[in-house]
Amino acid sequence: MEIFRSRWICAMSDAGDNEARKARKPPLNSPAPMSEAPVEEMKKPGVLLETYQRNETAFDEFLANEGTPRPHYAKLFGALQEFSATELRRRRDTCDRLVHERGLTYNVYGDPLATERPWQLDPIPFILAPDEWRTLEAGLVQRATLLNRILADCYGEQKLIHTRWLSPAMVFGQPDFLRPCHGIGVANDTFLNFYAADLARSPDGRWWVISDRTQIPTGAGYALANRLVTSRILPEPFRDNHVQRLAGFFRDAQKALVQLAPREADQARVVMLTPGPHNETYFEQAYLARYLGYMLVEGQDLTVRDNFVFLKTLSGLERVDVILRRVDDDFCDPLELRNDSILGVPGLVEALRAGNVVVANALGSGLLQSPAFMAFLPGLCPHLLGEELKLPSVATWWCGQESARQYVLEHLDELVVKPAFRSHLRAPDPEKLLSDAERDALRRHIEFDPDLFVAQERIELSTAPSWGKDGLVARPVGLRVFLVATENGYRVMPGGLTRVSPDAGGRFISMQRGGSSKDTWVISETPVEEITLLHESGQGIELRRTGNNLPSRLADNFFWLGRYSERADATARLLRSALQRFNPERTGSAVPLLAPLLSTLETQGQLAGLAEKPELKQNPEAFEAELLAAIFDPARPASLRSIADHLQRLAGLVRDRTSNDMWRVLSQLDEQLATPTASLVMLAGDAVGLLNQTLVGLAAFHGLARENMTRAQAWRFLDMGLRLERAVYLCTLLDATLRAPEADNPSVLEAVLEVADSSITYRSRYNLLTHVPGVFDLLLLDDKNPRSALFQLNQLAKHFEHLPREREPGQSGLAKTLLRECVTRLNNVDTRELASPRETWSSSKVNAAIQQTLCELPKLSDAIAASYFAHSAISRTGRGSEV
Questions:
Q1: What's the predicted TM-score (pTM) here?
Q2: What is the mean pLDDT of the chain?
């Protein structure tokens, strides 16, 4: 096998150099690399350190060798000492509450309990001294510049391969090298617009890079969210430490992305491309999109026409200039990259070739995420930049080199062996020792196909203080730092995402496996400048009042958000009235009075198959259990709990377009309807109280939507969904009432009025007992009653007048025709004919109008979906025929 130069010049890949490096290690916990800032007077450690057990084999970020806090932790530790135990617990609880209220979440793959988990935030920040930060900053800027130069060569002239500085197998042999992207120019020769490095401190106090994040450097949004929470629970030490702000980094990111656009900056449109709500960091994507002012889009929201990328909105196509992607390289274009991808944009690569759009990071940048490149960086840095590598990587051996492979095979038990490239290889568990059989199998695999393997030195992570159940505890930590490419070079975020291992002796940190996070404070010797993303005073601002750029996918989501919110409201009202009128002592006599409510619940699916269970009417306990299951059973697709889950999911899909208050209301609603603990007995009275709380929460949601959302397309489609759903359930309830055996019973009519929230209105008009014509006139035909069916249809007609012209004239005509026929039909009805004997009701015009309206409303929903939402035959969030 041919040997490449990097074999001799890359210190990190040579076994002999590694042994020499180990021999030169300073004593454990040596303070030499740390900043020697003046030590402030401090109180004795006291009770805070009673539970803090440092790891003697790892570097401790908090305590020096003599057991006293390091200088840059002095002010924080002094502030914590001033707090009582009660105050510390209160601030810990406040941290959890803020995380919950802000909806900070993280998706865990393959979890049978729940995909979405609350973000784990440790309230004790990780602190870096000013001198140490300046050293890290210089090393990170150099490393990002170096990696960008390597990427430019691999997708350009490939001189590093021709001159044997890189092995061809490292580039052409891995799937992250995208051949269709070779030769595509990038703006400002910057392939790596964003970069992140995972850092760890070794026992000798030195920082090492343990992984490079070159494709999609996630975590900056979580770092920002952590800062906003931590600065509120620890405002005193935050101010006293002069913590550097993060807003400047994001302001530079905004400017850098706009400058990449092919068009003038004032015309440039930047969007963030997301894989969708099931991605593990979807919260961060929505959070950053809203913070930076970008539209969060999925692949189906974009289209390529004549080598230009456009956003599909209800008002037509709008050109896109820059795509900040969160979709993996090979999923971005199913035409030229991965043909089974449904996340990308067909034709995107061709638009890149034409220079009509910019993608950040450039497609193919995941190439350098391979750990094998770490072994070559010490040699490539002097060659490309003319200087030594300032921030070293963890000791790495790529088995594609003969000497490195031999060293790895001789030290298998001492090293962490992993795939060199993205593949389906199953790497050994680094936290477990290999058995003899596993070791032999791994050895044979490496010898058979050495290019596919890389080995790295086992690392002992440094420890930092975390807040445990009983006080401060030492936990292993790793730091992820973020950079953005600007016109003046790379800019480092003055902070980062500190990740914490859940185990005291953990060597690897993963948020998927229970890890938590910290805010990262980079302190300054002087007061820091206040930085904001708001426009500077004196700048000219273009005023805008348009709101017609809503993608059809989001219109679909808002429409169904409105439908499910009203469905939850109707279901809660029906179940509350049924439980209030349920009498365990007289089940048989009570059921006829509940007939319209039970029939409506059966039609809507909450009590599916009730007619086939006549025995329930004679069994009070079973009947009550059935009603409670309609509330809490998550296995029932139409239970109130399931509806709340749908609401929560839809709210997540439009999170970048709605307020935190709306998200908070729906989150509380979902929690209230969680399945009761098995050890607790849920009584009917308890359930009624919970339904009351549910209705209050839904009223808050509807109030926020009505009062806080601008009258643009998002609000319009949400209200259209609400109106359509309310019309469906009102007609269903009135139809069930006409068919009820005791429909003219005042008690039955009182229940119907209560469900429709119209009892007070009825009593203000009629002094008599409830009667059928009056009730039906109020709930079916009164266009002044916001709870009547006709009112809902009239509101839908008003919304249609403000919608953009549909792309399909046929569908437009169908939707408006259906709505017009429904309105005309109801306007021609007179409910006084229901004053006749009940036997004639089935042949009345009122009954026919209700039946026909119930038949037409699903068709109206389908027509709306076909006109505005679906670019395929079926609406994405639900079938239009669903009622």
A1: 0.85
A2: 85
